[in-house]
Amino acid sequence: MQEKHNEIKQNAKIEIAKTESTKELNDLKAKYVGKNGEVTALLRGMKDIPAEERASFGKMVNDLKVEITEMFSAKENELKDKEMMAKFDSEAIDITLPGKTPLAGSLHPLNIVKNKIFDAFCGMGFEVFEGPEIDTDYYCFQALNIPKDHPARDMQDTFYITDNILLRPHTSPGQVRTMENKKPPIKILSPGRVYRADDDASHSPMFHQIEGLVVDKGVSLCDLQGLLDEFVKIMFDEQTKTRFRPSYFPFTEPSVEVDVTCCKCHGKGCSLCKGTGWIEILGAGIVNKKVLEMSGIDSNEYSGLAFGLGIERITMIKYGISDIRTLFENNVKFLKQFNRR
Ligand code: FA5
Question: At what angle do helices 311-319 and 109-122 cross, to 10 degrees?
Fold first, then answer.
């Protein structure tokens, strides 16, 4: 019997020494001291041992079980240490490696320019008023002195929703809504999306305008010129000059188109300004007396100036962008150029 014990102990020792993982060791443990293990089988065989030898046999088997269990415990500790060290090694972080730079977003060029326009005019005391994108025929045309049969309606190919409701083709309705709700002095910017049935390299069906309106006593064309001179210097640079050309808008009288000296060649003539040295940036004028009256403002006491600029146009001039569609394609390579970090 002693021989059998020694054999089991010896085999266990050899097999435990060979194990390389805690999983393997647990399986092996079942083989020796588990429910159906070899040592447990010895205990079960006690009933066949003569009564007088049973006590010493039982002690021997228990001692064997304790010894084998201790061998397993020792090996288990050794393997656990080894496995933990291997895990540490595999998870080791080399703190000397360079870090991953997170991708930073940036403002869209249209927002950069819009913010700059806001900064320029808000610095001159303008407030911002936003009107609705879907508006009525009255606010988009009639209240701006463009009656239903007026030929000026052909100037803007408009998206109508019903005969009376439309996607606004300009931000000029913002003038009317402001004058209806506010007494002079008025000094507002009205920005937003506008829509026209236009689509080519310099015209988009959806684009952004900013309307400017000043109403007070004695407002004149000189104020308009002074205001826009100051604006273009902030927007482009100190050397930029403005030029007024006569134009026609039913809601302003007189009306002007405003040009600036080309920001690329400073007036000498280049491909951007098509050799003229000037680039058109906006439409403007002195608010037509009829528009003031229709909006409830006494045109004998007050006068106003108004201007409307396209944000895309200014952005294209400022950054030398030749096709308006690049502003809406969301090409990350293009947009990354405006990341100021
Ligand atoms: C107007 O829309 C007038 N409401 C502006 C105005 C306001 C005049 C107040 C007088 C007083 P115009 O149609 O010219 O004017 O448009 C103004 C600017 O919008 C243009 O100078 C141009 O920069 C821009 N624009 C016009 N159509 C498009 C388009 N389809 N895509 C991109 N920009 C456009």
Answer: 110
**Burial tier of 111 (Cβ tally within 10 Å: 0-12, 13-18, 19+):** middle
Q: How far is the CA of 310 from the centre of ligand 1 (A)?
A: 6
Tens-place pLDDT, residues 26-68: 999 989 988 888 888 888 888 888 888 888 888 888 888 999 9
pTM (predicted TM-score) = 0.74
How many whole angstroms separate alpha carbon 291 and alpha carbon 177? 11
End-to-end alpha-carbon separation of the chain, Å? Answer: 83
Our answer on whether the CB atom of 209 is closer than 6 Å to any ligand 1 atom is: yes
At residue 49, the pLDDT reads 84
CA of 170 to the centre of ligand 1 (A): 7
Residue 191's contacts (CB-CB under 8 Å, 6 or more residues apart) are 114, 118, 128, 130, 171, 208, 209, 210, 211, 311
* Mean pLDDT within 281-293: 97
Nearest CA to 140 among 205, 184, 188, 190?
Answer: 190
Q: 184, 215 in Cβ contact below 8 A?
A: yes
Which residue puts its alpha carbon closest to atom 2 of ligand 1?
170
Pocket test of ligand 1: the residue of 198, 204, 282, 315 to mutate, having most ligand atoms within 8 Å of its CB, is: 282
| CA distances for 254 relative to 151, 165, 176, 203, 285, angstroms | 18, 29, 18, 26, 6
Report the distance separating Cα 62 and Cα 42, nearest Å.
10
Choice between 117 and 44, residue whose per-residue pLDDT is larger: 117
Neighbours of 205 (CB within 10 A): 14
| Rounded distance between C-alpha atoms, residue 286 and residue 220, angstroms | 7
Three-class SS state of 310: strand
Three-state DSSP class for residue 266: coil
Indicate the helix (H) or strand (E) that contains 2. Answer: helix 2-18
The identity of residue 146, as a single letter, is I
